[in-house]
Write a structure and sequence with these properties.
Belongs to the FGGY kinase family. Keywords: Kinase, Transferase. One of its GO terms (molecular function) is kinase activity. α9 packs across α14, α12 packs across α16 and α13 packs across α16. About 40% of the residues lie in helices and about 20% in strands. By secondary structure, the chain is α/β, with parallel strands linked by helices. A hairpin with a 3-residue loop joins β1 and β2. It contains 16 helices and 25 strands. It is globular and about 70 Å long. It starts with 15 loop residues before the first strand and ends with a helix.
């Protein structure tokens, strides 16, 4: 329970730290007892293609963490005049999935293989058939099984397999654990037990029996914990790994490490049944919290969980705003060539607002936004296309809405599986990401496309590290038997204002008309992939 005595020197939850290892930035946020950010720090990093695998070096993990924390600590000192020495709770999150195997001595057996690698197609297909459960290529079990299939020598020596967030947590606390939402991206979770599905564990053991491997999945996978459970404490060695200056003291409570999908759910207050969130930027994914598990598996749908273990359906699309961004850069180049100066923010706002003036049929224009492959539509590569008919009406408004609709089209195909085949009900989607930066436009078009109300909150911009800090705060501040969704609604978001936009009949009709042309156009995209090299 939170101590209400504001004069007490050590109020629990007064300073809570969330750190997230994203694909391009390591971000740290320190929040106060009112869940407001009081200091932040960041460090840019990039993955590298090494020996055919996308990876980040483990040295970069620690140097990046230290740089992000130092910037946060310096900002804290600059704003308060105090040195940051004690923190009441800490949580780490990171890019989900991937492959980090270690031997009995704690040495890494391979470089970190990230979620971005698409080297596990054979394994993913075998596992999906074996388990009757969709196993995407990026999942940890797919990486592990591909290593088994490839007869990689290190497989026999695996003592522990984890994710990036799990690795950092282990080194800082000594605990080999994961939050259930993050664990669900390693191996399927049984919704009834909140642990790895033991029937599937047995099936996999039988599958690899002939390989004579000396471990079982239960031996090497991290222990699964739920949000709100204590997941260890910061050791002396761990404190120095975060803060080599020695200012940070040991003993801080840790919450279970989570994945970036889970922190997105928390940051948008979308952890209750029949709610969802959609993260819309370079790629796009929706997370829908289900009332019950799906009746069947679909290769277009990833099944994960909330940080408390509730079954959650993820529709993940590799492509979203990259094509729009490319056209925007072209327009900016033209503007600059004319000797004019327009900020990127104004350019995007103008283009998005112009899209609202488009004709009902978008002037019969069509585009496909695939810069990379798109599993939902069965394409291993992408070719961005823009198509117009001889009698099409090429205007800026029609052009822009065509590209926005194209970005939404694949997400729509995935969401339709949930709604049409599984009768999933979604009361509201909480949106976050750059797509919603222009007021109302992205919201309205997504609501029309998905036929679901779309809301955006002011706090959504705080992002994953803030969501991770909230999970850490929940671990030390929750009341007895308090649910995460109640903690978020009653304490964190009770004063938050959300702007909700409902789908319109005209907008739904226009997008349906677009989809009637988009799906046949995918045959053109497939031909372009085959013939345009």
């Amino acid at each position: 329970m939170l101590n209400k005595d504001e004069t007490a020197p050590n109020v629990r939850g007064r300073k809570v730290l969330g750190i997230e290892f994203g694909s391009t930035r390591i971000k740290a946020v320190l929040i106060d007892e009112a869940f407001k950010p009081i200091a932040s720090g960041a460090h840019d990093w990039e993955n590298k293609l090494v020996n055919g695998f996308w990876t980040y070096s483990l040295e970069d993990v620690w140097s990046g963490l230290q740089a992000a924390y130092k910037e946060l600590a310096d900002n804290y000192t600059a704003s308060t005049g105090d040195t940051l020495t004690t923190i009441d709770a800490i949580g780490f999150s990171g890019m989900m999935h991937g492959y980090l195997p270690f031997d009995k001595s704690g040495e890494a057996l391979t470089p970190f293989r990230t979620w971005r690698n698409t080297t596990t197609e054979e394994a993913a297909q075998q596992l999906t058939t074996l388990l009757a459960f969709n196993i995407p290529q990026r999942w940890s079990i797919a990486h592990l099984h591909q290593a088994v299939l490839n007869n990689e020598e290190h497989v026999q020596h695996i003592d522990f397999l984890t994710t990036l967030a799990g690795y950092v947590h282990w080194k800082l606390t000594g605990r080999k654990v994961l939050g259930v939402g993050e664990a669900a991206g390693m191996f399927p979770i049984d919704a009834d037990t909140g642990n790895y599905d033991q029937n599937m564990v047995t099936k996999y053991k039988e599958k690899i029996a002939s390989a004579h491997i000396g471990w079982s999945l239960n031996d090497i996978l991290p222990e699964v914990l739920s949000a709100g459970e204590e997941a260890g404490r910061l050791t002396e060695e761990g404190a120095l790994l975060i803060d080599p200056s020695g200012n940070l003291t040991a003993g801080t409570v840790f919450c279970p490490p989570e994945g970036d999908a889970g922190t997105g759910m928390v940051a948008t207050n979308a952890v209750a049944e029949r709610t969802g969130n959609v993260s819309a930027g370079t790629s796009v994914f929706s997370m829908i919290v289900l009332e019950k598990s799906l009746s069947d598996y679909y290769t277009e749908i990833d099944m994960v969980t909330t940080p408390t273990g509730k079954p959650t359906a993820m529709v993940h699309c590799n492509n979203f705003t990259t094509d729009i961004n490319s056209w925007a850069r072209l327009f900016k180049e033209l503007i600059e060539a004319l000797g004019l100066d327009v900020s990127s923010d104004k350019l995007f706002r103008t283009l998005f607002e112009k899209a609202m003036e488009a004709d009902d049929d978008n002037g019969q224009l069509m585009s496909c936004n695939y810069y990379s492959g798109e599993p939902i539509t069965g394409l291993e590569e992408g070719r961005p296309l823009f198509i117009q008919m001889p009698d099409s009406k090429l205007s800026l408004a029609n052009f822009m809405r065509t590209h926005i609709y194209s970005a939404l089209a694949t997400l729509k195909l995935g969401m339709d599986i949930l709604v049409d085949k599984e009768n999933v009900t979604v009361d509201q989607l909480l949106g976050h990401g750059g797509f919603f930066k222009t007021e109302k436009v992205g919201q309205q078009m997504m609501a029309d496309a998905l036929t679901i109300p779309v809301s955006v909150m002011d706090s959504a911009g705080e992002g994953g590290p803030w969501g991770m800090a909230l999970l850490a705060s929940f671990a030390v501040n929750k009341k007895e038997n308090e649910l995460l969704e109640d903690f978020l609604s009653d304490q964190v978001f009770s004063q938050q204002q959300a702007i909700t936009i409902e789908p319109t009949e005209k907008g739904k009709e226009n997008f349906t008309q677009f989809m009637r042309r988009f799906e046949p156009m995918l045959e053109v995209e497939k031909a372009a992939v085959e013939y345009v090299k």
